[in-house]
Specification:
alpha/beta; 2 domains; 524 residues; seven-stranded mixed β-sheet; 28% helix; 26 strands; three-stranded antiparallel β-sheet; FAD/NAD(P)-binding domain; 21% strand
């Protein structure tokens, strides 16, 4: 909204934002955050280019508290005059293309009742965190005797936190950042008035890699390594951008060096975190696979709680729920009944567009015509550049929507605000017809090409494949698409030469990103 309003020479002077919640922030809104929640990304990588956090938040090695993120987003909206464009408590229930007026028809409901509006352009921003992923399981016995079921998205509700704080035994399902954070908070009695510590069990199929805040005996903040050109050079590319990357990926020596570097980092992780005696918390898959999503900063005290058995680890999955608790099948094949009074699903979200019909999704080219899927539980999503429906780039019929719909928030990165910034500029240029786009056949094929004179890549379109765990979705995104994310990587990775004065200057990042963006050869 900020880019369309202020950076397009008034080409989009009328902007309307429909927000289902009563306040700003999305996953960081007042209704969804809770005490103890913080970003998984370092503070200096979690800023919108050109708009800095307060100085006391912008610290190397620091992660931003949820309350600070909420205040930051509200300040951004206030600074750029966006709040007057937001219609709060407005749930969009149906989005359809009106061929006669060549407009998007939006129907929904707010505090005043039903509403409908027509718009020339549409940007869908419900993102990857819209529909809770709670698996359907067989249940036995009277419902009143079942354990209470919650999702991690519910923890913003004080009543849910009270129930979890006063439980006898809570089972948390998941291995991601939310799961281990919530396990730590509940086990330490963080939300309990008397600091009561309930019993907590953590159930997952396999552990994720945990990141220390600093490595090499505390000498280097890990973010300095993660966002460096050095580490990025050893990650896989869909197309080798130069001879060096080709040598790394295809020669025996290059592969050996890559594996050696990551094995050294893995070994240091386990030593820095003190995991050597906690085998149940150490993954068997290589760290290199985790850098695209399944890598989480270890919460303070989490591993000590596991060591003290205040957090129990179970590797397996739930088979059923009954009045006696939950029936768990371990990875070794044995079945066990666990007596719990709460089950907290920290299993991520599903790709969902409850306001689109299957027919609309198919017309947009997001879903194949021969696949009948539930719009609230899609198996995958197909978008050109992870931004626009392929069928609308070169529509076959004159009455069909043409370059007037985009999806923002599906190009995941560890640098989400910067990616959103670049995506917003791309969408604005796309709507204004200022981009040279590939031909329809190339978009259909999802052709990947190199950018001239650069180690950056762009991607035709990517499939956002469905997985029952959010981290797998994010890993697939990062592995398949390095499109607009590359601007962020190129500017943030100045770590080693800046030493102790390491900073991410957002104003410089903004100027450099725009310069690089405008210099790109987007022609097919």
């Amino acid at each position: 909204a900020k880019v369309l309003l202020h950076e397009t020479d008034d080409a989009f002077s009328i902007i309307t934002i429909f927000e289902k919640q009563p306040s700003l922030g999305g996953v960081w809104s007042r209704e969804r955050i809770y005490p103890g929640l913080a970003s998984n990304s370092p503070a200096l990588t979690y800023e919108i280019p050109g708009f800095q956090y307060p100085d006391d938040v912008r610290k190397v090695g620091a992660h931003v508290e949820a309350e600070d993120i909420n205040a930051y987003l509200c300040a951004f909206a206030e600074t750029h005059g966006l709040k007057s464009h937001v219609k709060f408590n407005s749930e969009v229930q149906d989005v359809s293309w009106h061929a006669e007026t060549r407009r998007w028809l939006i129907r929904g409901r707010d505090n005043s009742g039903d509403f409908q509006s027509y718009f020339k352009f549409l940007v869908v921003c419900n993102g990857l965190y819209h529909e809770k992923n709670i698996p359907g399981l067989p249940r036995q016995g009277p419902p009143k005797t079942w354990p209470r079921i919650f999702h991690s998205a519910d923890v913003g509700d004080p009543d849910v936190r009270h129930a979890l704080s006063n439980s006898v035994h809570t089972l948390i399902v998941g291995a991601g950042k939310s799961a281990i954070d919530l396990a730590t908070l509940i086990a330490t009695g963080a939300w309990s008035d008397d600091r009561r510590s309930p019993k907590v069990s953590l159930l997952y199929k396999r552990p994720h890699w945990l990141s220390p805040r600093s490595i090499l005996g505390g000498m280097i903040y890990f973010e300095r390594l993660l966002f460096s050109r050095f580490l990025n050079a050893w990650l896989p590319f869909a197309v080798h951008p130069d001879s060096f990357h080709r040598w790394i990926a295809e020669t025996a020596i290059g592969k050996w060096l890559t594996n050696t570097i990551f094995r050294c980092v893995e070994a240091d992780f386990k030593v820095s975190l003190g995991q050597l005696d906690l085998h149940e918390t150490v993954p068997s898959h290589p760290l290199r696979e985790a850098l695209s999503g399944a890598l989480h900063v270890a919460p303070k005290g989490y591993l000590d709680l596991v060591r003290e058995k205040k957090i129990g680890i179970i590797e397996g999955s739930i088979e059923s729920i009954s009045d006696r608790g939950v029936n768990v099948r371990t990875n070794q094949g044995s079945a066990t009944m666990i007596d719990v009074d709460n089950v907290l699903w920290a299993t991520g979200y599903k790709i969902a567009f409850p306001f689109f019909t299957v027919d609309t999704l198919q017309r947009l080219g997001i879903m194949p015509d021969n696949l009948d899927s539930d719009p609230t539980d899609l198996p995958f999503l197909k978008l050109h550049r992870l931004l626009v429906p392929p069928a609308t780039v070169h529509p076959k019929m004159g009455s069909a929507p043409s370059r007037n719909i985009a999806f923002s928030g599906f190009a995941y990165s560890l640098l989400n605000p910067t990616v959103s910034f670049v995506s917003a500029h791309w969408i604005a240029e796309y709507f204004l017809g200022k981009l040279d786009l590939p031909k329809a056949q190339k978009i259909k094929e999802g052709k990947i090409v190199e950018l001239r004179g650069s180690c950056l890549l762009r991607c035709g379109f990517s499939y956002l494949k469905f997985s029952r765990t959010m981290t797998s979705i994010l890993a697939d995104l990062m592995h398949r698409c390095r499109a607009l994310l590359s601007v962020a990587v190129a500017n943030v990775c100045r770590t080693w030469r800046e030493g102790d004065t390491y900073r991410v200057p957002c104003d410089a990042l903004h100027r450099s990103a725009v310069k690089r963006y405008e210099a790109y050869d987007w022609a097919p």
